Structure formats: C-alpha cells, structure tokens
Amino acid sequence: MSFKKTVRTLPRVGDGPVFRRALIGIVLIIGAFLILAPLLIIGVEAFAKGWQVYRDTILHPDTRHAIMLTVLAALIAVPVNTAFGVAAAWAITKFDFRGKGFLLVVIEIPFSVSPIVAGVAYLFVYGLQGLFGPTLDAYGIKILFAIPGIVLASMFVTAPFVARELIPLMQAQGRDLEEAAVSLGASGFRTFFSVTLPNIKWALLYGVVLCNARVMGEFGAVSVVSGNIRGQTNTLPLHIELLYHDYQAAGAFASASILALIAVFTIIAKVALERQGAGRVRPVANSAENAS
What we know:
With about 290 residues, the protein is an all-alpha fold. It has 14 helices and no strands. The radius of gyration is 25 Å and the shape is globular. The chain starts with 16 loop residues before the first helix and ends with a helix.
C-alpha cells in the first residue's frame, strides 16, 4: 500500500484576484498621471497654435543654436564618460589594489550630489574668484560661461552611468575569460577587444544610451556654469526655460517636444537592448579561442 505525500502550497502575496487587480490599477493610474499625462500635454501644447508656429520656433536661430550646443555637449561628454566608465570598471573588477572602495565612492558622488551644487562647486574651482580662475584668466582660457564649462558640468553629472552598468556585470563574469585568453598567448588589447568587449557590449550600449539621454536633458549644473546667455551658452533645456519665462508657452512646448522625442527614442533603445540580452556572456572556450 503506497501513501502519497501531499504538500500544501502556501499562497503568495498578491495571489488574490482582488488585491492583484487593485495593485495593477493603482500602478496604471499613477503612471498615467505622472508620466503619460505630461508627455501628452507637451505634444498637444506644442501644436496648439498650429504647425507654422511650431516650425518657426524650431527653426529660430536661438533654438537651432541651443540644439547644436546640446548635441555638441553630448558628442564630447558621452565618449569621454564611456572611456572613463570602461576604464573604471576594468580597474575595479580585474585588479586588486588599495583604494578600490574609495574609487567606487568617487564614481558614486554624482548620484548623491545635486547638479546645482556641482555647478556651484565648478564656480569655486574655475571662476575668477576660484582656485584656478586667476591663472586661467591670465592665459586667456575661459572655462565658465562658455562651452568648456557646459561640457564639464555635463560630464560630471553623467560620469557614473556607464561604469555602474558595467561593474556589476564584470564582477559577475569574473576573470576566467581574460586569464584563459592570456594563457593562450593573447595580448592585453587583443584580450580586451576579443573577449571582454563582446561580453559587455550590450551593457555598455545600455550605459551609453542612458548617459546620452542624461546629457541632453541636464539643467541644474549647466544653468549655473553657462551664464544663460541667449543664443550663445543656452542648451535646449535652458532655452525652454527662457521661452517659458518670456511667456512664449507655445515655443517652450515646441522646444520641449524635442527632448520628449529623445526620451521616447531612449526608451525604445533601452527595450531593444534588453531584448538583445544586455550583458550576455559568451562561452569561455569560444572566447578564449577567438582571442588566441
């Protein structure tokens, strides 16, 4: 005679249909009011006065200059922070050295410091009354209230994005792939480009996308170091604020629609990268053989 042991499965939190539907409904309502509604308003108000006003606003010299300056800051800040993020992640995950914890803290600083505080700090470093200001002024080098200051502020606020995407992944991968490649005779650069880079490419691209989106939308730090000079040092977010303060609501929403489109494309890129399998690890044998 056989006895079948029955195991009673305890219900999970949220298994009840009422609770599950209520929770989903709350999330949808909050998401609609906090995220979807502002985006819809931007689209509606941007074309509230017709396509002609929208086009004139986008083609206005000040708007075009703001867009070009924003793109320029991204073209400089994103590659530099990408190189910094890869180097920092490589150093932290592949080597043991004193001060590794301190380096991690340094990388995290921009996440915990307000961008406006960072902008004020740059004033005390590169301003005329700052640490290096008099020396820079003596040589005719202008950092603040110019493009270099905007780029520096953008780099500060976006410095952790690539590194923070790569560090957990590279820690999980360990050092076996690189050690196997080196044991087969691969050089350091060959190991990086044939083993490490293919295994981190999706996480790297994901960090680059987030970094670019953050640069495009940065306001606080840039507003302090740029001087808000219309047509000269105004990025797109600062230009939107000036239009709004000038009671040009339609123009402000038209300019804001560009940033909204960037946000939408960022989300699409994020989803695409996640579907591609961000941070997938190639088999050890194949990676090592390719490196050799």
